């Protein structure tokens, strides 16, 4: 066994003026560290990086010495991101790029390409290579250009060089500007023909690079769909490869098709992507030779915000298979030789993809619940890993979007207490997702809402409102909004508002720095007054008439439709449910003018909201006039020619059916059973 002192001597030997000694030391070091993480760590500690880098930086360094030194760089880069980052920071990238320049020694070029490929395998090193991309990209594309003339499948060495160059190009596509740089230099026309080669490794490398090049980039996706090879459109080539017997080719082809589908530019019919790509990804989850995490993430990405893809995933058995994988991981937890880090990443990927698949469709959610997903989510919420806890909450949020599931499964699954516990989790990300899930649990249809109130959820929400994270504050307000909706208990409503503080809600509703929290606070006011006289009294008694009218006015003049709608329905609910307070707003010229102005809006929603407000005011009749009573506020309404404006809307063929129907109902308030007395 070689002692540490001997290893130190090898490092010192690298400074020798004798090339033979330097070569011998390098070769010994290379053979020592390959495959040995411990020895790599030792040589890092012995400061090998500066010595090796300095050898490569010298112009007159012998080629054989360069080959050995570069092999050491390549081996050290495989140790992990920290090691690769140290190598990058040492300035090793410049000599490596110079060594792949045309005219370099073939062996040195190849080993340098392998070193670059290993070095750029990590996010930090990919990003850190920015200043070198201007040199590196043309070199790499020149290698691909030379490889276009390769026709023989037996020319493995040439194929391998092109494969490496293509892989490195893909690793450089980590930012949108780099994607455009590589595409603008002609990469698309060079890469697409490589897909039709019969060398599988090169096909996989090309598909990976095209996937990286087109990721979240609609312009490049469009450019790809407009190209092809030998008369075959790009999407057709991909669909053929997605049917390949080679699992890795299938996967990488599916990744490219996912990009095109997500950017909605694929020339392949959506049905083909559903029937080919989705089932392929589901089947690939069972392939032992592939990275399951990558497959599952790809499935989640393809299904994100795509209803039809989610249904296709359900029909292909994705939900069943993913939940079975979760169960398998859980059963392995106490076993020997379990790769905990891998299982943690896999669990997170499964939970996020499941969340995506069940995010929009009730059938998907029911399928997941039938497969006992809630039990797995409760278990995952107790994980030591914060990312798993957050992913479990996110998945639970999507599951609890279903009213039927909330009514029938929530009480028995025990999800409430874990969610309440996670509201004070040490991870802010977990607090965000847990508070977002709580929003659904506090709906009036949720059977656990009263249980949550008994568990002190209002006090927890008060604490969340003091969070520095705007998303947590937004979610807390949203939960308050749901809590006060259809509460049917005036004393409880007052108790909740005493804790939350109406004054705080008012400040949030009129504040314009955070639109997300402002909207939720405004909606809370709208929902409180919707509960009837009691809620209206609490608000007016706490804030006073002047501030309540000011709040409505600010919402109506906010310039944002969603805030205006809250203002309109706040106005309407007060007008309908409280004759006393209706008098205050109906005789406020500024409010009436603002409301009636929305009858001319281009938005059907705003017109309908304004008509509801007019109906609310017009529904109050002059006292003591019996069936012939005119609207109590007829003078205020006539001042703005409301009746004639409504009649014009009713006769306008351009307005929607919903607007027309609401206007006709409102006009009924302006008629009496007989003519009014003159």
Automatic annotation (TrEMBL):
The keyword Nucleus appears for this protein = yes
Q: TM segments?
A: none
Q: Which domain of life is it from?
A: Eukaryota
Q: Where in the cell is it found?
A: Cytoplasm; Nucleus
Signal peptide from the UniProt entry: none
GO biological process annotation, one example: proteasome-mediated ubiquitin-dependent protein catabolic process
One annotated Gene Ontology cellular component of this protein: cytoplasm
Q: Name one Pfam family in it.
A: ARM_PUB
Which UniProt keywords are listed? Cytoplasm, Nucleus, Repeat
Q: Does the keyword Nucleus apply?
A: yes
Q: Where is the U-box domain?
A: 283-472
Q: Which Gene3D superfamilies match?
A: Leucine-rich Repeat Variant (1.25.10.10)
Q: What is this protein called?
A: ARM repeat-containing protein
Recorded source organism is Linderina pennispora
């Amino acid at each position: 066994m070689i002692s540490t002192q001997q290893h130190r001597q090898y490092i010192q030997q690298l400074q020798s003026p004798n090339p033979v000694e330097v070569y011998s030391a390098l070769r010994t070091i290379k053979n020592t560290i390959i495959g040995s993480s411990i020895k790599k760590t030792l040589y890092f500690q012995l400061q090998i990086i500066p010595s090796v880098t300095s050898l490569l930086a010298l112009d007159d360094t012998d080629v054989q010495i360069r080959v050995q030194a570069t092999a050491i760089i390549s081996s050290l880069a495989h140790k992990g991101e920290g090691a690769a980052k140290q190598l990058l920071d040492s300035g090793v990238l410049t000599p490596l790029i110079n060594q792949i320049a045309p005219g370099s020694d073939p062996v040195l070029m190849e080993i340098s390409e392998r070193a670059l490929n290993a070095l750029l395998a990590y996010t930090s090193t990919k990003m850190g290579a920015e200043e070198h991309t201007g040199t590196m990209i043309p070199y790499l594309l020149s290698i691909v250009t030379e490889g276009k003339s390769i026709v023989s499948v037996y020319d493995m060495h040439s194929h391998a060089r092109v494969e490496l160059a293509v892989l490195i190009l893909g690793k450089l596509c980590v930012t949108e500007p780099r994607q455009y740089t590589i595409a603008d230099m002609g990469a698309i026309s060079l890469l697409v023909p490589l897909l039709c080669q019969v060398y599988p490794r090169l096909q996989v490398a090309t598909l990976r690079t095209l996937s990286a090049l087109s990721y979240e980039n609609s312009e490049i996706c469009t450019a790809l769909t407009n190209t092809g090879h030998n008369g075959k459109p790009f999407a057709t080539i991909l669909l053929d490869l997605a049917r390949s017997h080679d699992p890795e080719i299938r996967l990488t082809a599916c990744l490219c098709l996912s990009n095109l589908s997500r950017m909605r530019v694929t020339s392949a019919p959506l049905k083909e992507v559903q029937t080919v790509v989705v089932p392929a990804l589901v089947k690939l989850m069972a392939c032992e030779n592939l990275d399951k995490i990558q497959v599952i993430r790809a499935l989640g990405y393809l299904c994100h915000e795509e209803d039809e893809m989610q249904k296709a995933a359900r029909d292909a058995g994705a939900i069943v298979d993913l939940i079975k994988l979760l169960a398998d991981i859980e059963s392995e937890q106490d076993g020997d030789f379990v790769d905990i880090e891998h299982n943690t990443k896999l669990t997170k990927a499964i939970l996020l993809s499941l969340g995506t698949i069940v995010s929009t469709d009730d059938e998907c959610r029911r399928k997941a619940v039938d497969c006992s997903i809630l039990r797995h989510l409760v278990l995952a919420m107790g994980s030591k890993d914060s990312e798993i806890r957050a992913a479990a909450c996110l998945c639970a949020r999507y599951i609890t979007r279903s009213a039927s599931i909330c009514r029938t499964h929530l009480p028995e699954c025990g999800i409430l207490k874990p969610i309440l516990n996670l509201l004070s989790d040490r991870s802010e990300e977990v607090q965000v997702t847990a508070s977002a899930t709580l929003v659904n649990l506090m709906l009036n249809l949720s059977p656990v809402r009263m249980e949550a109130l008994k568990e002190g959820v209002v006090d927890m929400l008060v604490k969340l409102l003091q969070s520095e994270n705007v998303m947590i504050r937004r979610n807390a307000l949203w939960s308050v909004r749901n809590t006060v909706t259809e509460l049917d208990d005036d004393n409880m409503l007052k108790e909740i508002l005493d804790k939350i503080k109406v004054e705080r809600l008012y400040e949030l509703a009129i504040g314009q720095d955070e639109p997300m929290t402002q909207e939720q606070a405004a909606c809370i006011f709208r929902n409180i007054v919707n509960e009837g006289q009691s809620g209206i009294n609490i608000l007016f008694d706490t804030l006073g008439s002047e501030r309540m009218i000011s709040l409505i006015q600010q919402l109506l003049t906010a310039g944002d439709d969603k805030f205006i709608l809250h203002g309109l329905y706040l106005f309407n609910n007060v007008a309908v449910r409280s004759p006393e307070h209706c008098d205050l707003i109906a005789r406020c010229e500024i409010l009436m003018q603002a409301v009636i102005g929305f009858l001319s809006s281009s938005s059907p929603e705003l017109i309908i909201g304004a008509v509801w407000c007019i109906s609310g005011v017009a529904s109050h009749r002059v006292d003591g006039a019996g069936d012939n009573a005119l609207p109590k506020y007829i003078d205020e309404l006539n001042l703005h020619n409301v009746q004639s404006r409504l009649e014009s809307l009713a006769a306008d063929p351009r307005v929607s059916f919903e607007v027309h129907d609401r206007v006709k109902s409102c006009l009924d308030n302006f008629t009496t059973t007989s003519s009014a007395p003159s």
